[in-house]
Each structure stands twice: as C-alpha cells, then as structure tokens.
Amino acid sequence: MKKNYFIAWVFISLLCAIMFSACAFEQDSPVITISVNPVTPTNVTVGSISGSLSVSANVTQGAALSYQWYSNSVNSNTNGTIINNATNASFFIPTTLAAGTYYYFVEVRATGGAASVRSNVATVNVVTFPVITITVQPALTTNVTTGSISGSLSVAATVTQNAILSYQWYSNSSNSITGGTLIFNATSAGFAIPTNLTSGTYYYFVEVRATGGAASVRSNPAAVVVSSSSSSSADSVTRVLFSGPSQTVTLSGLVNNDIYLVKVNTTNNMVNAGNTGGPSGSSPSFGSGNVLPTPDEIFVARMGHPGADVFHANPPPFERKRLSANPDGLFRSSAASANTVNVTTKRFWVETVINNGIFTQIWATLRAQGEYGNIWVMNDLTTFTGSQAQEMASQFDEIYPLATTLLGFEYGGGLQPGDPHYGGWDSDPRIQILVYDIGYNPAGTTLGYFWAKDMRLDTGSGQRSNEAEMFYMNGHQSVITNFGMNTLYSTLVHEFQHMIHWSQKNIKHGVNNTQTWYNEMLSMIAEDLISPLIGIPVTNTGHPVRARIPGFLTGYHLSGITEWGPDNNPIDSYAVAYAFGAFLLRNYGGANLLKEILANNSANIASVTAALRTVSGDNELSFEEALRRFGEALIYSGVNMPAGVLSFDKTDTKTINTFTYTAAGFNVWSGLGFGSSARPRIFGLTEQVVLRPHSLTIHQPATGWTNRSGDVQINLQRPNEQSVEFYLMVK
Fold first, then answer.
1. Paired residues of 209 in beta bridges
2. Which of 118, 278, 588, 600 is the 20 to 30 Å CA partner of 127?
3. Nearest to 105 by CA among 81, 125, 84, 122
4. Dihedral sign, CA of 163, 167, 172, 175?
5. How far, in Å, CA of 406 to CA of 594, rounded?
6. What are the φ and ψ backbone dihedral angles of 341, each rounded to 5 degrees?
7. In whole angstroms, how large is the CA radius of gyration of the chain?
8. HSE (CB half, 13 Å, CA atoms) of 510?
9. Quick check: 668 and 293 in contact, CB under 8 A?
10. By C-alpha distance, which of 730, 731, 727 is closest to 266?
11. What is the pLDDT of residues 266-298, one digit of tens each?
12. Is the peptide bond between 41 and the residue preceding it cis, with omega within 30 degrees of 0?
C-alpha cells in the first residue's frame, strides 16, 4: 500500500514538473502602453487651419506598432469612424473643417497578438474670427488742381459678430497697398485730401481693422492726380483716370498723329459690351466704317489633347516608376538595349478617334533611333517613310539640349547611369515618340500631344497607359502636305515643353493646378525661341509667329489670355496666349524670363508675376501690369517708335550656357516681315465689344482721330465695370 502511495506521489510530482516547465516557456502577448496622448483641446481658425495631433506609444517584446485614427461625433473613444489613410503616429487636422467641435482618437496596434489600445479623445475646436468686408472702395482716381484742392477719399465697410471697426489711412509712393507710410490722425472712414499738394500723382489707401481678432483688410489704392492746368500733354500713352461719370482729356501738341483708345480688362471676369464705356453717349452699335483686315489663308493647327488638358490641370497623385506585370508596358533598360531599328515592334494604346475615350492597341515599329529619342511609326502608316523618321530623330537630337538648357529636364533626365532615376519613369533614357494617324480636319487639326497618363501603371480600363515617357505626333499624309515637316519639328519642341513642364511643376514642385492657357503659352514661346536654332526662322510657316500671329491680330478679342477654348474653339486661345507670351519675351527678358517661369514653384498668373519680378528686379511688376501695356504692342511698330513704349517689333537675344536664344521682332502693321495681309483689327469708337477675361480691344472712329495736329479734346464715358481701364495712345 505504501508503495502505491509512493508511485502516485512520484507521478503527480513529475506531472507538476512538466506543467511548470511548459509554463516557463509560454510567452505573454506584447503589451502596448501609450506614453503621450494627443493634446486636447486644440483650437484652430477657419481659413487658416494647420497643425496635427500625435501619439507616442511603447510596446514590449520588440513588436511592431501600427496606428489607425478615428473621428467621432461625441467626446468618446468608443466606436468612431475610421479615417482613411490616417495610419501614422501623427494625424494632420483637415484644413477644410467648418466652424464647430470635432473629436479624434487613435487606436494603437502591434504585431504578436497584442491587445490594441485607444488613446484619449482629442478635441479640435474650429473657431472663426470676425470678418471685415469693404463694401465701397475709395475712388480709383481723383483729379484736383493746385491752388484749389478740395474733396476727400472715403471707404465703407462691414464686419461680422458685432465687432467694432476702426480705420488707418496710409500714403504710398507707388500704386500699391504694400508698405506705405502711416498718416497720423487719419483714423476715420473719410480722409480729406491735403490742400498743399504740388503737381504730381499721390497714392493713398486705408486699412480697416476690427475688434475680436479680425484680420485687417486694406482697400484698393486711390490715386490723387494733382495738375496745374486742365490740359495734359500728348504723351505716347495716356491713362484716363476717371474722377466722375465722364472725363475730358486734352491731347496737346499733336503733329500729324493718329489716336487710339485701348480698353483693358484686368480681371478674370467677362465684361458685357454695354459695360465697357467709351465716348459719351456710346452704345453697343456696329458699322463704324473701319476697314477690317482679312486673315491670312493659313491651315489651322492645334497641339495638345482635350483629355490631356483636363488631366494635367487636375492630375491624380504622381506614381513613382516601378515594374509592371504588363508585357506591353514599360520600356525597361534591358529591353531598350535590345531595340533594333526596323525590327523591334511594340503595341501602343491610342484612341480610335482622338478624344473619344475609346482605346485600342496598334502595332508600331521602331523606325529611327537617336541619342535622345526613339521614333516609333504605326505599321499601317505606310506614307511616313523611314527617312522622315530618321530626320525626326535627328531634329529631336538637336532640340533636346536646347530645350533642357532653357526649360529643365524631363523626369530623370540629365542623370548618369547608376542613379535610381536614370532612364526616367520608364527606365529607358530615350523619349518615346509615336507617329500615328491622329486624323486630319481642315477646321483644326491636332499635330501632336503629350499625355502624362502614360507615366502611370496601366489599370486595364479607362484611359489606357503605355507606361512610357512619350508623346505623340500626327503622321497623316494631309498633315505633311499642308503643314510641312518643319511644323512637325516645331511641334516636337512644343510637346517636349509639356513633358518637361510636367516634371518641373507637377513632380518636382507638386504644383497640381496648371491651367491650359499657361502651359500652352509656354510651349509656344519655347517654339518661338528654339525653332530658329533648328532651321525654322520667324518667316517660316512652321514658326509660331507665322502660324499664330495673323489669327491673333484679327481675332484678339475672341478669347481672353487666361481662358481656354471659348465656344469650344481653342484655335483663338492658341493665338492669344502665344501673342501675350511673345510680347513678354520681347519686352521683359526673353529666354531668361521663360527659364525662370519654368523654374519657379508656382503656376499660372502667379508664376508669370514671380518670374517678371525676378528677372526685372522690380517687385511692383506683375502679370496685370504687363497686360495694361499689352495694347502698346498692337499700336507701335516700325521706325520712330516713341521712347519707352513696348512693342512686338523688338528683338531680344540671351545666351544661356553655350546657346543663344533670340526672340525676333516683327512689325504688326507691315506684313510681319513675310508679306502677311493681317494687321490689328480696330473697332469703331462707338462699337462696344465684350471684353473677355484678361483681354483688350482697340478703338478708333472712322474719321477725326487720324492725322491730327494741334490740340484735341476727347470726352470719354466711364465704364460701368470698374475693372475696365482706358488708355489713349498717340501714334
């Protein structure tokens, strides 16, 4: 019996030892500890929301932490709504929140079976400050006479949340609200014009303030023009500064001069014809008696692709290059080295009809290979010869260093082998250029296009990607016959700018709102500067001066500079955007200006303004100031131009590195230098015309304003739309 007890005791002891040993090897799950909870509360302001919430956590056993942020409608970390892509230790407060209270918390997780832990709730209070609105601006211009100065400037404003308004007036030496000198005791809504001013122009503005933390608001600048007599000398350009519903201007000392009225719309709004003003009593009538020019008989061309324009103006996030499972995608470096002219074939996605969104694959053969480009020709396009392909490759080899010196590089361009981005997005250092039958339409033919969708992985549906750095050229026989190869070579420059533009603005600087007028303007002025260096001078039909300026001179009123394709017709927009860019080149820095526009980290009007200021050193210069002087280029050309006026008839030459770029001058009144019949369209004085965004019109009566001598009095009616400015030009 004792023996049995002993055996049982041994058995139980062994069992306990085994169980203890197993327990000794069993690990506890990792444990998460939040050491720093998100800060609460956080106060931010509508319109200037910034900042982030963050958490700090530790975990045992070397487990890997992960995070998921939640929002909630109540002050609780129970339930909640997952915030997509908010999977870091920090969470940026959304910048679009409206006024109110918002609750956030984060769930911290870890590998190894750890129990997740939720942070405390962080409260974000979104508040608003009182908002000031100026309802009545000071008069744009007030004219007074020395010895009898009287009158005042005034402003009217409102403020929300019952805050209390206050005012401070400033003087300035320029037509600007930047800087300025505080005027002591000028703290009312009205400001009496000093009576001791001498002849000259003085600028004033008022800063409106309010209690409760409101952001102050400055009024528009107000000009006070002090003269010693009621007449003004006939300078080349006289700005009409209205002090009432009408203004009489005396131009004195004329000697066989012609007079023009230029109306300028300096805003992005369209101004109806009846609101543009003119001579007193004017109305929206036509039939002024002016003989209008006839446009040159030229073939109508467009570059670009409507779908690409939309894509580039609002692109999806950029995808870095990576390998694809698509056997037709990505020109890998290994495959690129095996490409053989007249042997290698590939399939490319194109639309069955341009811009119809229906994609099909076509076979194309490598017909030529240069140092910088591969020329692929659609197999069914038998009229585009191998020699034409080789010449295109040779031309692109000339274009590439000229363009990259001036504009910058495409993605990965300019790098050496071994760099991870060498070979660009598709791992092939050459640009792929596909020549295919895009089609031909006498009313407007697409010569080529770049579409950045191809620098994305193909999804298998929708806008199909060729997974290559490439652009497309139209090899239709009618294009070759009617436009000529020089036009296609200039188009190579045009489309390459679009590709570089995408790299510089979208990829490098993260600028995602490039507008079509701006991008197209830059492509055309790149053509302007580079085409002569590849054998296409300004007199050649392939040069944009010859192709675009005649249409601009006769139809400059049909499209605003900053709009694209009014009435679904982009042809006028090409002409107007290019003409403004050509004007900028010839008067504000030439190639240096274009280089700076591409290099800066903004787009559209802001980019042009920044480049103008950088190149000129004038911090008051702007896109709008250049627009105000754009009309001069339509009036003044040829010999004996007045000093200081701006004109298309100026030549600007700049050398960058080893290349010299020239914007050649041309005379808009004398055939542009190649016998063109086009000249600027002049509207009648009573002929009111719609002013499109950022545009102008030029006016002159059928009789009375030509070949004038002596003094001339002109009585003009103030425009109903105050954004319209008047300039009288004496030629």
1. 166
2. 118
3. 122
4. positive
5. 8
6. -60, 135
7. 34
8. 0
9. no
10. 727
11. 999 999 998 998 876 544 444 344 444 445 545
12. yes
